[in-house]
Design goal:
By secondary structure, the chain is an alpha/beta fold. It is globular, with a radius of gyration of 17 Å. It has helices at about 15-40, 40-55, 70-75, 90-100, 140-150, 170-190, 195-205, 210-220; strands at about 60-65, 80-85, 110-115, 125-130, 150-165, 225-230, 235-240. The longest helix has 24 residues, at about 15-40. Helix 4 (about 90-100) links the parallel strand 2 (about 80-85) and strand 3. Helix 1 packs across helix 4 and helix 6 (about 170-190) packs antiparallel against helix 7 (about 195-205). It contains eight helices and seven strands; from the N terminus they run ααβαβαββαβαααββ. The protein has a seven-stranded mixed β-sheet with strand order 3-2-1-4-5-7-6, with helices on both faces.
């Protein structure tokens, strides 16, 4: 299992509570900082997630760790009748709700507060589940993925977009320098929370990416598991199916 990394190392709160506090604190800055930190490439990655799911023609999608709703909004292009964006942070959801209202998408997208490791939905509820930069924030990775499997319909699709670590020179060295030294500084300058972007880079570094994560998905019970590195390997898109 991955090493446990938390936002606030001196806090007595559990990881789940710390992550909620962190995202509530940075919610107003999150979208702008994301564009700066990823050089806007995260938009292209989300478009690829949408393209993958559009081929599946899902009518119902659950977007876990939806944050401010960027992926949930993009998923409208799949043609799904109902999209539920779920997040543990009310602050992030409030930003997302404003975006959805401004785009007049309230009839299609519902934003709900919820725990990804204890989903309130019935078994076999959704045609597809997506997670964008969220699985590394699960307190228990296997519990969260088991919940995803439970709420997916048989033959339903899971698509995960998550950070990974480049393995080839010079991208590996450049990524290490950027995430260890530059990213936390950007976070401190532009964010209200000095710990947040240090945590985000540290959690990305220890997350079990690539084949290691594929094996975890298979162990949980998913089939047809694949992963596709994005942009020199700084992110990966994982796909899997429920039997």
């Amino acid at each position: 299992m991955p090493e446990k990394v938390t936002p606030y190392k001196d806090s007595k709160l559990g990881k789940k509570e710390q992550v909620t506090k962190m995202f509530d604190t940075i919610s107003k800055d999150y979208d702008g900082l994301n564009r700066v930190i990823s050089f806007g490439i995260d938009i292209k990655w989300r478009k690829r997630v949408v393209a993958i799911l559009k081929k599946e023609n899902p009518q119902s999608i659950l977007d876990i760790a939806t944050g401010t709703g960027d992926l949930a909004i993009a998923l409208v292009k799949t043609g799904a009748e109902k999209i539920v964006g779920l997040d543990i942070s009310p602050g992030m959801l409030d930003v997302g709700k404003d975006k959805i209202t401004n785009k007049k998408l309230n009839k299609t997208i519902e934003m709900v507060v919820g725990d990804s490791e204890n989903l309130s939905f019935s078994d076999n509820s959704f045609d597809a589940v997506t997670v964008s930069f969220g699985v590394r924030n699960f307190e228990s990775l296997e519990t969260g993925l088991s919940e995803v499997l439970r709420v997916l319909k048989p033959k339903g699709s899971l698509v995960i977009l998550e950070t990974s670590v480049p393995t080839k020179t010079p991208y590996k060295q450049g990524y290490r320098l950027y995430t260890k030294y530059i990213l936390p500084v950007i976070g401190k300058v532009f964010s209200k929370d000095n710990s947040a972007y240090g945590y985000l880079s540290e959690s990305a570094a220890v997350f079990p990416h690539g084949e290691t994560f594929n094996n975890i998905l298979s162990k949980i019970g998913f089939i047809e598991v694949t992963n596709k590195p994005q942009t020199f390997g700084v992110a990966s898109i994982y796909t899997a199916k429920k039997p």
